[in-house]
């Protein structure tokens, strides 16, 4: 059966603005994967019509690697809690072109959310995409996050 344009077209629904304040990275140079940057996260804020949340605990981090050609690969894991008390595990991979230095190219991610709270069970059923920026001093990353439909 042939697919129609409506079955294959993507629609992006705004979910939230995701802002994270980052600690100075721990740098491991010349690893088999490239140069690894481990960023502890100081704070996270998610603000949107359907979700408002902040970082919970102190275990959130990004284990990023940058290749010799400047391709950055993200591996982010974070725990947030909604303003009404639901814990949510956020994890995403992504890419950024670091060849021209930090802050000079968009950062892309594909967040997924895990929670057992029934009020936010819908989050576990969606795929999101994100586009953002990282500050030149690597202290802040800001994304616009969208649900893919």
Describe the structure.
- This protein is mostly beta strands and 149 residues long.
- It is built from one helix and eleven strands, in the order αβββββββββββ.
- It has one helix at residues 5-8; strands at residues 12-22, 26-31, 34-47, 52-55, 61-66, 71-82, 87-97, 107-109, 112-114, 128-134, 140-148.
- Strands 1, 2, 3, 4, 5, 6, 7, 8, 9, 10 and 11 form an eleven-stranded antiparallel beta sheet that branches.
- Strand 3 and strand 4 (52-55) form a beta hairpin.
- The model has no long low-confidence stretch (mean pLDDT 95).
Tags for this model:
149 residues, mainly beta
In short:
This protein has one helix and eleven strands; from the N terminus they run αβββββββββββ.
- Backbone structural class: mainly beta
What is the overall pLDDT average? 95
Terminus-to-terminus distance: 21 Å
Q: How many separate helices?
A: 1
- Share of helix among residues? under 10%
Radius of gyration: 16 Å
Spans of at least 5 consecutive residues whose pLDDT stays below 50 are none
Shape: globular
> Mind describing the biggest β-sheet?
11 strands, antiparallel
Number of strands: 11
Percentage of residues in DSSP E strands? over 45%
Element order: H for helix, E for strand:
HEEEEEEEEEEE
Question: What layout of secondary structure does this protein have?
Answer:
Layout: H1 5-8, E1 12-22, E2 26-31, E3 34-47, E4 52-55, E5 61-66, E6 71-82, E7 87-97, E8 107-109, E9 112-114, E10 128-134, E11 140-148
Antiparallel strand pairs: 1-3, 1-11, 2-3, 3-4, 3-5, 4-6, 5-6, 6-7, 7-8, 7-9, 8-10, 10-11
